[in-house]
Amino acid sequence: TKNSGRNGFSFYDSTMSEGAGERLRLEQDLRGAVQRHEFILHYQPQLALGTRELRGVEVLCRWHHPRLGLLSPDQFIRMAEEIGVIDELGAWVLEQSCRQMARWDREGFRVPRLAVNLSVREIERADLVDQIKSILQRTGIAPQRLELEVTESMIMRRADAAIATLMSLRALGVTLAVDDFGTGYSSLAYLKRLPLHRLKIDRSFVEKLTEDSNDDAIVRAIIALGRSLGLETLAEGVETQEQADFLCREGCDEGQGYLFSRSATAATLAAGWLV
Ligand code: C2E
Ligand code: CA
Ligand code: CA
Ligand code: CA
Q1: Where does the record place the EAL domain (predicted)?
Q2: pLDDT for the residue 6
Q3: Most buried residue among 16, 58, 136, 220 by CB atoms closer than 10 A?
């Protein structure tokens, strides 16, 4: 079918053996959940590594399943793409989180930037730019405060179409970050052509920083690459002070991870930050 996706169902091969019925049921649940908005948004701070000031928050979606409890995005985003509901889910996430930014503004909790993950399906959609534009207008959030996170593979898969979309988004004023940088296969030529702002160094390289000299070298190289292309760098999954110190010393601009804060609901985050 139209919604079965380029990648087929490969991701679900293992669960298929437990029964196609179970998968079908989860798909139906997900369709309903998107209609009823059974999702919860968590936010995770992104900080300046030098001063620890709050630079932004990343929105992370959870599915509050009535039977299975809180499900992580790794358990449903791919399925949402395959059954064709990711556009609706993505639009809801964007609108809710922009509303939340406006609420924080009114409450005096100033979050400079909102970072939202885009899925590959969304970036391939012709009306994405118009949709984002109208959400920003409706919620009164300045485009400059919205950052969209895209992965290398998303950019490379349908490079020309993706580039056109990214150019229009940039023209709108939103900024763009490359998520999970270093894990995909991006050509450096594309990095130069794209209107990017930030490289997000993947957590897998940050994990063994100062313990594995290969990872130290990779992270140094990404920071240097960012610098020479005029891009900011943000390290994901910072869990220890040693990692933060290394990153700061090497000139990485921002960090995100359990060392600073886990992801939390909007209320928890504001309460913790305002004390
Ligand atoms: P991501 O964009 O790479 O998000 C970072 C993930 O790392 C999050 O997992 C976050 O909770 C986790 N994390 C943050 N700091 C640390 C740390 O210090 N240590 C460790 N071990 N993990 C950390 P989460 O929330 O399960 O999200 C998984 C992925 O799902 C995200 O990866 C993102 O690609 C996707 N995702 C989440 N929300 C959305 C959404 O609204 N739309 C789309 N399209 N994708 C989403
Ligand atoms: Ca992300
Ligand atoms: Ca990431
Ligand atoms: Ca990831």
Answers
A1: 23-275
A2: 44
A3: 58
Instruction: Write down the pLDDT at residue 181.
Output: 93
Beta strand spans in 66-207 (E): 69-71, 114-117, 146-151, 175-181, 198-201
Q: Does the beta carbon of 82 sit less than 6 angstroms from any atom of ligand 1?
A: no
**Predicted interface score ipTM higher than 0.95:** yes
Around 272, how many Cα atoms within 13 Å sit in the side-chain half-sphere? 14
Whether residue 42 contacts residue 264, with contact meaning beta carbons closer than 8 Å, is answered with yes
Query: Please, what are the averages of pLDDT over each run of 10 residues along the chain (275 residues)?
Result: 42 58 93 98 98 97 96 96 96 98 95 96 90 97 98 82 90 96 81 91 96 95 95 98 98 98 95 78
In terms of Cα–Cα distance, which of 117, 195, 210 is closest to 163? 195
CA–CA separation, 237 and 206 (whole Å): 7
Find the helix or strand (DSSP H, E) in which 258 lies: none
Sign of the alpha-carbon torsion through 244, 245, 247, 252: positive
Ligand 1 within 6 A of CB of 129: no
Spatial CA neighbour of 166 closest among 230, 123, 135, 125: 123
pLDDT at position 4 is 43
Quick one: CA dihedral 161, 156, 224, 209, positive or negative? positive
* Ligand 4 center–CA 275 separation, angstroms: 30
Q: Is 152 in the pocket of ligand 1 (CB under 6 A)?
A: no
Helix (H) or strand (E) run with residue 39 in it: strand 39-48
